[in-house]
Amino acid sequence: MSNFLRQVKITQPQLATFLQHQCRAEASTASSTGVTQSGSIVLDNRKAPPPLDADRMRMHPRIGNREIVGYGLKGKPEYFDLAMFPCPSIRWEADTAEITALRKKEQGDWKQLSVDEKKRLYRASFRQTFEEFCAPSGVWKWAIGWTLIGIAGLTFAYDGWRRICYRFDKPDSMADEKLKRQLEFHIAARQGPMTGLASKWDYETEMFSTKLKSCLILILLIHCCSTNEDVYKEELYIRPLASGHTYFNLLFTTVASPDILKSNIVHHYHLFPKVIADIVRSNGVSEFHVSLTQGLWRYDRWGMPIVGAPPGAEVWAWFKSDEQRDVASRWTSFAHELGGLLCASLNFVASNVSSSSPYYSFRPQSTLPKSNGANLDNSLLRYAALPREIVCTENLTPWKKLLPCVAGGSNHNGLAGLLDNAPKLYNSDYHSLRMDFRQICANTACTSTQLELSMALAIVVNTATSKPNYNEWTFRSVFGSNVAQSCPLSSLTNVYVDLQLSSTHSLNITPEPDYSIKQGTTPIVIYDLNSDQRKSTTFAMSCTHSKQPTSNTDSSSPPIVVHRYATGYGVRDGGIKTVIKINEEQNKNQITLLYFEQIPWYFRVFLHTLKITTLDDDTTEIKPDYISYTPGKDRERSYQLEIVIKTDQSIVISFEFEMAFLKWNEFPPDPNHGFYIPSAVISTLLPSKSNYILRSLNSFSLNQSLSSWSDGFVRLYSESLLVNLPTPDFSMPFNVICLGCTAVALAFGGLHNLTTKEFCFGPKRAQTPLRQRLQDLRVRLMASRRALAQRLFKRTPPQQQRHEHAE
To answer: Region Disordered: which residues (predicted)?
Structure first.
């Protein structure tokens, strides 16, 4: 090293850097061979520590006689307790005689060291253990405490300063006598007259005026009279299914006087929703039915529902004939108002493009006197369906606010309290919201009518457990809560449990029912929540049922099952095939089927391709008794098909259509998803009522439907179809737009400069002499040479040192 330094000419800073680098390299080489092993812990610090002598002399007043054991965090002899760097560069304590003796002892067998000696060695190297310096210090408490103390001190200081600086006597106008005289002057001068109830107060007699008393008495009389007319019922129908599911149908029925629809008198709305009465009155609606459904009812697995509904949204209404406005405008207004009320997209059904007027499929369900129900003109009917409508809690929330026991507050009593946990209801295979408004007879002679509003919620929940053929459910597992108390406004609160599976399954229901009835061959148990023993108590229900090993028959097979498929391939031609399976064991006689199809205009139906055959033999054609076909018109009217068929066996209805090519602005935002065809509707009268419960047209209430023989009217809905239309490549217009915008953006700058800026000649620059130019060129060449030399010498330091030594 010394010989090399004597032969090389080097400056003092370069010498110091070289010595420091050489010392660290030697320390690194020496430390790479020294590995300290103690027990099962291996400490290997291969990184070179800093130069010992220079740093120790510089840091001696701070570190004393403490040993430097490693490089540390920053290459300096400093002690830190850090979780990210737990090994500091120096020890915590200085070397004493005791510590030196222990260090010599630890170089041997660690088993000879006691626990106290090991702790003493650890405390000599480290100030705290890892758990100690990582433990929370609680500084935030000190900071928050002093902050609150400071805020309190500033508040008290400001309050004291305000009391001292703003201390003055009140003016004479603030005295009680002056304030009273000022109020009398304002009343006498009629300054800012009050409105509402306060304006009826007489300041001279200090009591309300006699006119107000008369109005209050009149309001009380109207309230008493209207309370006796409104009737509200709550019902829950439960049916365990053989497929491992359970069918729940919540029904809320409100009956009110038809006088609330009269616009020339003032009415008090006690139980009937005022917003429904306003919609019906303003649009001249005689009756309406709307359903919002998520999922498809499986007839072959679940049997027959009380009331069927298609997937998506369905709405149909009958309008009065003695109104000044036409039906089209009233239908548009009604759809918009009802859609806004239920937070649904019913505004899309307002036009004639998506609505139709069937002849026989949707007859009025109001039970009116013969003189009032003689006019059945189908031009007063509007029907529409939206199979793509999504149903969620946004629809359930405004729907349940129409119930009397929900609109009053947050503590919902009665069966309406089961609707509080909305996300629990949508964890089901089938979910349907319904609202039916119609007129019914007030007495058996039907001399007067009443208004009936029926609101139903139907869900099908999978109650199967991990145990095969075993089902279990409770109110809390299905709805998220139990029935707290019965609704005080409800005149009837019943829970019906259909024991149709009792012949093939063993059912265990708790608590014990109040009484039971038999509807045909189906036993039904009933719980009366308005009874004295259940009126003020929480009603919790649970059920377990399992299939009996000896049972092989299935009594829940429905009399009719409907399935529908889309046929064809490609994006030009297609077809629809509907299969109607009839249970020939239950229906031995002929039944009349009313088949209805509403198909959008962009599926051009060909009537000559209509074919009706039997399911067993496709060559045996069946001639329909009646066919009603309304051809569609592009962008103006949808296709409408109604067929009346009498048969005693399963049939297949098929026809073909051609797909239209839409304009680019007629496609939805997701055109490749496809276009929906609404469900087909099959209406019929079933001859038998032994194994299923249906809603009676005489009354939508289940209590009256079970107590009287039903007419057997059912309306079945098939699957909605999803068909792909010819769809253009929407990425090409996007690419063209991007390319055009890019070209315009690039050309805009030049065109803008040429059209807006003025070009002129500037002052002539002075000419530089040739000698000055050559001198500038020489300076640039020398600078380039110097920069190139620095780069070369920086890359090869030994060559640069030899060159400097030679110079």
So the answer is: 29-57
679 close to 388: Cβ distance less than 8 angstroms: no
Alpha helices in 81-134 (DSSP H): 97-106, 115-125, 130-134
Cα–Cα distance, 94 to 68 (Å, whole number) = 10
> What SS3 state is found at 188?
helix
| CB of 693 closer than 8 Å to CB of 522 | yes
**For residue 23, what pLDDT is reported?**
40
Residues near 285 by Cβ (< 8 Å), separated by ≥ 6? 279, 317, 318, 319, 320, 330, 334, 437
Whose CA is closest to 257, among 451, 490, 489, 491? 451
Q: Is the pLDDT of residue 44 over 60?
A: no
Q: Cβ neighbours of residue 291 under 8 Å, at least 6 residues apart?
A: 309, 310, 313, 314, 315, 432, 433, 434, 435
pLDDT at 595 over 80: yes
Tell me the C-alpha distance between 21 and 5, whole Å: 15
Give the model's pLDDT for residue 218: 62
pLDDT at site 21: 44
Contact (CB, 8 A) for 654 and 611: yes
Q: Please say if the pLDDT value at position 607 is more than 90.
A: yes
Helix axis angle, 115-125 to 97-106, nearest 10°: 110
Residue 770's pLDDT is what? 84
CA atoms within 13 A of residue 323's CA, in its CB half-sphere: 19
Rounded to whole angstroms, how far apart are CA atoms 599 and 632?
9
Element (H, E) at 158: helix 139-165
Q: Residue 649 in contact with residue 616, Cβ under 8 Å?
A: yes
What are the angstrom distances between the C-alpha of 551 and each of 297, 508, 556? 25, 17, 13
- Determine which of 43-52, 235-244, 524-533, 565-574 has the lowest per-residue pLDDT on average: 43-52
Given the DSSP bridges, would you call strands 492-498 and 231-240 parallel, antiparallel or unpaired?
parallel
Other CB atoms within 10 A of residue 580 CB: 25
Q: Tell me how far apart the alpha carbons of residues 233 and 416 are, in angstroms, rounded to a whole number.
A: 11
Confidence of residue 199 (pLDDT cuts 50, 70, 90): low
At the top level of CATH, which class does the domain 560-723 belong to? mainly beta
One-character DSSP codes across 438-461: EEEESSTT--SEEEEEEEEEEEEE
Residue 530 to residue 490: CA distance in whole angstroms: 8
CATH 2.60.40.740 domain position(s) in the chain:
560-723
Strand partners of residue 90: 68
- List all residues 6 or more positions away from 83 whose beta carbon is below 8 Å from its beta carbon: 130, 133, 134
639 C-beta neighbours (distance < 10 Å), count: 20
Cα–Cα dist 200/773, whole Å: 103
Name every residue whose Cβ is closer than 8 Å to that of residue 514 and which is 6 or more positions away in sequence.
526, 527, 528, 531
Beta-bridged to residue 528, according to DSSP, are 494
Structure letter (DSSP) for residue 344: S
Compute φ and ψ for 566, nearest 5 degrees: -100, 130
Q: To the nearest 5 percent, what fractions of the chain are helix, strand and coil? A: 35, 25, 40
Query: Which residue has tokens 């315009």?
Result: 744
According to the model, what pLDDT value does residue 641 have? 95
Q: Directed axis angle between helix 274-283 and helix 327-342, to 10°? A: 160
Report whether 238 contacts 494 (CB < 8 A). Answer: no
Cβ–Cβ < 8 Å for 701, 293: no
Alpha-carbon distance 472 to 789, whole Å?
89
Sheet strands (E) in 697-759: 713-717, 721-723
> pTM of whole model > 0.70?
no
Question: Which residues in 359-465 belong to E strands, given as ranges?
Answer: 381-386, 430-441, 449-462
Distance between CA atoms of residues 193 and 204, nearest Å: 16
